[in-house]
Amino acid sequence: EAAAGEEQARARGQTEAGALAEAQESLRVAESQISCYAEGAVVRRIVSEEASSRGSVWTRCMRTRTPDEVQRLCGELQQWTEQARQREAEAARGAEEESSAVQALAEARRSLQEEEATVAQQAQEVQQEFQRREREMQEEQQAVALQQQQQRIESQLAAAEEAVFGPAVPASASSSSVGPPPGAPRMQPAIALVPDLPLTVRIPHFELVRQSLLGTEINYTIVVEGLGTTETIVRQFSQFRELHTRLSQKPFAYSLRSLPQDWLFSHFSNSMLERQRRQLETYLDALCSHSQVVLDPEGVLWRWLAVDDFTQVIVRLVAARAAGSPEELQHLTQTLEAVVAVSDDATRCVHPVVLGILKEVLLGDVPEASQAAARLLEQLLVTSRRARQLFLSRDSGGAEALLAASRGSGGSVAASAVQRVFETLCN
Prior knowledge:
three-stranded antiparallel β-sheet; elongated; 14 helices
């Protein structure tokens, strides 16, 4: 199309050039006629002068033109001149249009070259991305094969150990029994799961962000619901992989749930994407139920979920109780008191599990933790009717715990809490 346009512009330029030449020829003819007319006027003037001086003979010999003829000739001359100028202007416009067409053609060629370069670069990027995804798939397949091989080896070792040393001795066996002899494989400690977790992590939906043929990214919307708070974050599969990589460097890495596989062409199938969404949701739920992950001092999971300090302390408190760690439980109780003092919102602690933990700490042997639990319970029971219903019910044993703590490690702090609770109930 550009070549045809150039050919048409060239033909139009040639036509205009011919018109310009014709106009210039007409102008030259007109100029010659004007010159002849001027010379005739001079001759007539000289002859007129000679005739006037020499007599009427010369006057009869010369033929003069009337004013009408002179006016007619001048009008024709002006008309020819105007036509010549118009043809010259048209020829100039034709030349300008031809120049514009040539420039447009050159610009179209440059744009075409740039588009070809861009397409070539995108094709190269797609090829590189495809190669990278292919390498990742091969690595994942190798990792899965190694994991399966390791599981087979572990099952074979367990079978060989049972065949050599007999079945495992239960915990209720005699205390005189000894462990496996030196050289036997050491079993990994069990990991406590956190029941009644006051935290819910859901992935309700996902969104496709298309960048190129193979460079499609998937944004997963994650909703984190804690006690009195709800947070929404957006994560991609690469961030899930980073989280799993950091947790795999911890001592409890052997007990982690495996990360779901990222299929290369999963974005072409909605069913595969939905399956991956459910798998990632299950993966996050397993992490939040893992006591060691929840109690990790570095808080890798908490920074990834971007939850507030209140939710983090509450969940860690429940996880410490499930893991059977009294020292961590007492420390987190004092931390919870500080967080409540900063946030000035103690009602978020009104939960049966949290109140039960505070009752256990209240009856503990550490005075500082017992006093912190007494102060928290005092604030909750005085300000929240729901907390009084849960803690002071006949089956919960909360009133007996307060009275026992006022005579035990809780001391005067627990006694003050009991007094204020009674005053609130009386009022």
